[in-house]
Write a sequence for this structure.
């Protein structure tokens, strides 16, 4: 960063837990809870922001993301299927599924777009190259493949005017932009950020009220903010663990950034050095974000 006098923010520990692969945080304004997943642990959690009680709300195989449908209903991607969970009844049912030819393929990150459709990517469990895709699922459960030859399909978000979709392939260390419209079409793919290797690998992503992108850096001990127009770094949050996976704005004024992390991929020596790996961190921000888009059924 060019300004050496800039004060770097440091994330604080919010909930201490040894999640194997913490991911997919979702702020739920109605209940003041942070929902998030441990993919390799097979669990979906809900942390109450007031009491800091962390409840398991779903046990599955490889739950990788959560999308809100209503105040008490959520879609959870798990392996090759998507389930609809009702938090009042505690029941869940299969909403949609994909039959992958390769049994090592699983769903990864996913979000609802401004048109209330679901975008969700896939990857090989061993991160083999070019085995993943990006799909669009609408309320009629129609599934359309939009991109292929992806290695690790990851973070996505939309510009404030909903005319641009941003998307990450972690392995390629690139952030892409697409023209986006009311039909949820993506056109004119281009690279807007080519992440230097020394910063880590880009993972999950969110956007703030200035239209800037906050990207969790796997192996980079940080969340970094980029201006998508210039491709320049404009801010950074240091996290005390190496593998930072995703982030989301939440809290009373949507000005708290919640950050998930992972223990996966770390050696015994690294886990001893960074014992809070897998925990959820946070920092108060001087910018705010938005409630995540709902999926429409």
């Amino acid at each position: 960063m060019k300004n050496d006098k800039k004060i770097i923010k440091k994330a604080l520990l919010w909930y201490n837990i040894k999640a194997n692969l913490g991911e997919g945080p979702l702020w739920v304004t109605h209940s003041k809870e942070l929902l998030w997943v441990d993919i390799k642990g097979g669990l979906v959690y809900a942390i109450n922001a007031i009491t800091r009680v962390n409840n398991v709300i779903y046990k599955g195989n490889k739950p990788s993301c959560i999308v809100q449908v209503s105040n008490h209903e959520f879609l959870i991607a798990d392996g090759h299927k998507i389930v609809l969970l009702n938090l009042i009844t505690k029941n869940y049912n299969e909403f949609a599924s994909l039959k992958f030819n390769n049994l090592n393929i699983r769903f990864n990150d996913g979000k609802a777009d401004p048109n209330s459709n679901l975008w969700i990517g896939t990857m090989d469990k061993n991160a083999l190259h070019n085995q993943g895709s990006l799909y669009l699922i609408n309320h009629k459960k129609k599934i359309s493949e939009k991109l292929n030859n992806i290695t690790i399909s990851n973070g996505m978000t939309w510009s404030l005017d909903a005319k641009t979709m941003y998307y990450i392939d972690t392995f390629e260390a690139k952030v892409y932009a697409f023209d986006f419209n009311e039909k949820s079409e993506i056109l004119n793919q281009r690279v807007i950020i080519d992440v230097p290797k020394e910063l880590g690998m880009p993972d999950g992503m969110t956007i703030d009220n200035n239209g800037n992108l906050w990207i969790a850096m796997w192996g980079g001990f940080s969340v970094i903010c980029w201006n998508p127009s210039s491709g320049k770094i404009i801010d950074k949050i240091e996290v005390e663990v190496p593998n930072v996976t995703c982030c989301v704005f939440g809290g009373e004024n949507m000005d708290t950034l919640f950050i998930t992390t992972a223990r996966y991929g770390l050696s015994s020596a690294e886990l001893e050095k960074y014992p809070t790996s897998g925990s959820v961190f946070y920092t108060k921000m001087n910018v705010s974000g938005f409630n995540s888009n709902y999926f429409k059924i």
Q: What stands out?
A: The CA atoms of residues 256 and 284 lie 5 Å apart.
